[in-house]
Amino acid sequence: MSSGQPTPLRHETYTHGHAPAVVRQHAQRTAEEAAAFLLPSLHPGMRVLDVGCGPGSITRGLAERVAPGEAIGLDLSRDTLEDARRDAAARGLTNLRFQEGSVYALPFGDGSFDVAYAHQVFQHLRERDTAMREMLRVLRRGGLLAIRDVDWGTVAYWPRDPRLDRWIELHREAWYRNGGEPLMGRRLRALFNTAGVVDLEITGAVWCYATPDDTIAWGDAYADRLLTSAMGGRLVDYGMVSRAELEGMAEAFRAWARHPDALWSFLHVAALGRKG
Question: Is residue 261 part of a domain?
Fold first, then answer.
């Protein structure tokens, strides 16, 4: 298989959706945090693919690390990519470009990249083994495969609220109904082992929100996402909650965020290996 193009694009049900509240929050992600496990292995001149790049804030950091090498961000959301292109142009990043496409049919030839990276992508995929093979296909021999995903089974927050407990439960249930895996982080080692990569390194990092600024930003963002994005809308569509219950969950997020004892944390797992 040399290009992936004959394979029809598969469209997943993206649990978060691409509403403005979602994209705004994702645009705050940086390569320094989201790709910390990968950055020491990057050097100028490399060619990097960022699969599921979203608004491109992480891709931008990768491009800066490998310049004058090239970074390409790939995503299914045309509107989000347009915003990413405008941002890159405004910053004068000439070694960064964005392309629409699916991880199941990457529009690149065999061995085209030194690095293939995906952040918070595999948790949304139905055919994770297929996606892994396709990312490996476009890597040169010895190239780096880097994937990071959250594990929603590790959520710890305080103070407790039955509305938030219920939301966490339903969020995971809807995620599975959408075909994804909200506990993807803990499964990355197994996924990489089946792919036969070498020099595998597994690391973990905790996202922890425990200052007033952090908890308000996190809680308000999720309240907005519940009310304006597919993440909340599908809970209603699936008959899991009423609109009034959804609004109550959003209210709970805002109240929790402003509590002086507020804390929210969960684990992210990163896997880094080489194509043998």
Answer: yes
Q: Report the alpha-carbon distance of residue 119 to residue 148 in Å, rounded.
A: 5
| pLDDT tens readout for residues 178-233 | 999 999 999 999 999 999 899 999 999 999 999 999 999 999 999 999 999 888 99
- Single-letter amino acid, residue 61: G
Yes or no: say if 118 and 103 are a contact pair by the CB < 8 Å rule: yes
- The structural domain count of the chain equals 1
- pLDDT digit string, tens, across residues 61-81: 999 999 999 999 999 988 889
The reply to whether 180 falls in a domain is yes
Per the structure, the complete domain to which residue 177 belongs is given by 20-274
- Looking up residue 61, the CATH number of its domain turns out to be 3.40.50.150
- On whether residue 113 sits in a domain, the answer given is yes
To the nearest 10 degrees (0 to 180), the angle between helices 230-237 and 243-257 is 140
Distance of alpha carbon 189 from alpha carbon 273, whole angstroms: 10
Sign of torsion over alpha carbons 116, 68, 201, 203: negative
Are the CB atoms for 139 and 275 separated by under 8 Å? yes
Sequence-distant (6+) residues with CB within 8 A of 49 are 71, 72, 74, 106, 108, 112, 113, 115, 116, 117, 135, 138
Is residue 4 situated within a structural domain? no
- Residue 204 tokens, joined: 């973990």
The mean pLDDT of the chain is 91
